[in-house]
Amino acid sequence: MKVTISEVGKYVGQEVTIGAWLDNKRSSGKIAFLQLRDGTGFIQGVIVKSEVEETIFQKAKSLSQETSLFVTGIVQEDSRSSFGYELSVSNLEVIREATDYPITPKKHGTEFLMDHRHLWLRSRRQHAVMKIRNEIIQATYEFFQSQGFVKIDPPILTGSAPEGTTELFHTKYFDEEAFLSQSGQLYMEAAAMALGKVFSFGPTFRAEKSKTRRHLIEFWMIEPEMAFYQFEDSLKVQEEYVAFIVQSVLKNCSLELERLGRDTTQLEKVVAPFPRITYDEAIQFLHEQGFDDIEWGADFGAPHETAIADHFDQPVFITHYPTKIKPFYMQPDPEREDVVLCADMIAPEGYGEIIGGSERIHDIELMKKRIEEHHLPLEAYEWYLDISRFGAVPHSGFGLGLERTVAWISGVEHVRETIPFPRLLNRLYP
Ligand code: 4AD
Ligand code: MG
User: Fold this and answer.
1) Which ligand is closest in space to the CA of residue 221?
2) How many Cα neighbours within 13 Å face the side chain of 418?
3) Is the pLDDT of residue 282 over 90?
4) pTM (2 decimals)?
5) pLDDT tens track for 128-154
6) What atom in ligand 1 is closest to the CA of residue 223?
7) For the chain: N or C, fewer Cβ within 10 A?
């Protein structure tokens, strides 16, 4: 019977055949251990010389890394491995031999691995990160669909920019000027007026000249938008959502977290509600901590965010940022015009901002004024103004960056490992 590695638990004591690649091997004169992978998982195959035909044992000993093969054997329980099973191999058939596979078990430099990203993805570590990414995507759909949100797909080719015009990727749209979406938000706001509660999940593009462990040029964002939700209502959705994805990963990806050496006690603490601190309080806190380099009105850098996050040891909301450092669409605080009803969620352990969100302006005159103050072309936003022109309501939304969230939950240092084929400053290959 042909089965996948993920299914072997159902076949203990039975003979199965697995299509696999050889990940690694060890052998002596009497026994060979084959580390096999088939994409669904990893399993050890054991071949005992005295129990198989001589030619099979010799073939096993000569297998090179990444050779593809069909392996037949009896599934055994194995309490020593965290996977719990191994295969007593009785036969193997080579599909295609691989020679000189570039990524060997020895250590390689990051640039080398990035140049071979298409092969690096086959490694145990990358496999674990991709499985966790997949779990977060799955949990995202589950969370929002179960709460009555409708999945909406905003366009990628656009003519309006929510987050400012400096980081846009320009492209030709026949005779028109267009650019790649940096956020689907404005379209999601229109969709929320049509469907109430909506969420998107798609790629976004930022031509940011940033080369940090948190920045990608192409990244994936989840953007919920809710009609009639005010600032506080949105924070509640955000903390429940983030707690839900963390719990889902803990529940369904324990093998992967273990393979990555993730300290799960840090994740177990992630339970709603999350702590909150206003921007004003954050500035005061930073001054007390000896950060003399930041003044009221400036945006936080990575060291500031990390200091705040370390203090709380949980995801934390920083709320009410100065109006002048935030995008045009954010609702000013009715009690204080110089700050907006917004919040960034900062992940613990130095992973930085994972969510940016706010209540949106729904007063047409204020919206027009803010678009002009930000020197945006009013004509391009005519359609967007219709949201506040026809039956405007308070509404709120946010964007969660998938890769930063995967990095935090997986405990990997850099976002380049959290997306299958990262687009970075100076990297478009492979
Ligand atoms: O804070 P940002 O720019 O917010 C928006 O785009 C809003 N329009 C979202 C909304 O309200 N619908 O981006 C949201 C999140 C950030 O918190 C961060 O997690 C991620 O997107 N992000 C990036 N991730 C990787 N690389 C980059 N260059 C990123 N820029 C933002
Ligand atoms: Mg932001």
Assistant:
1) 1
2) 28
3) yes
4) 0.97
5) 999 999 999 999 999 999 999 999 999
6) 12
7) N
d(CA 140, CA 146): 10
d(CA 306, CA 237): 24
203 burial class (0-12, 13-18, 19+ CB within 10 angstroms)? middle
Task: State the Cα–Cα distance between residues 220 and 418, nearest whole angstrom.
Answer: 11
For ion ligand 2, residues whose CB falls within 5 Å: 356
Q: Give 252 Cα–ligand 2 centroid separation in angstroms.
A: 29
Q: At what angle do helices 231-252 and 124-146 cross, to 10 degrees?
A: 140
pLDDT tens digits, 96-110: 999 999 999 899 999
Q: Are 219 and 405 in contact (CB under 8 A)?
A: no
From the CB of residue 293, how many other CB atoms can be counted at a distance below 10 Å? 10
SS (H, E, C) the chain: CECCHHHHHHHECCEEEEEEEEEEEEECCCEEEEEEECCCCEEEEEEEHHHCCHHHHHHHHHCCCCCEEEEEEEEEECCCCCCCEEEEEEEEEEEECCCCCCCCCCCCCHHHHHHCHHHHCCCHHHHHHHHHHHHHHHHHHHHHHHCCCEECCCCCEECCCCCCCCCCCEEEECCEEEEECCCCHHHHHHHHHHHCEEEEEEEEECCCCCCCCCCCCEEEEEEEEEECCCHHHHHHHHHHHHHHHHHHHHHHCHHHHHHCCCCHHHHHCCCCCCCEEEHHHHHHHHHHCCCCCCCCCCCCCHHHHHHHHHHHCCCEEEECCEHHHCCCCECEECCEEEEECEEEEEECCCCEEEEEEEEECCCHHHHHHHHHHCCCCHHHHHHHHHHHHCCCCCEEEEEEEHHHHHHHHHCCCCHHHCCCCCCECCECCC
Ligand 1 atom closest to residue 210's alpha carbon, by position in its atom list: 28
Q: How far is CA 116 from CA 101, 120, 262, 420, 426, in A?
A: 11, 6, 25, 12, 15
Q: Which residue has 């400096």 as its token pair?
A: 166
Tell me the per-residue pLDDT of 43-78, one tens digit each, with 9 for 90 and over: 999 999 999 999 999 999 999 999 999 999 999 999
**Ligand 1, closest atom to CA 358?**
11
- At 325-374, the pLDDT tens digits run 999 999 999 999 999 999 999 999 999 999 999 999 999 999 999 999 99
Pairing of strands 42-48, 150-151: unpaired
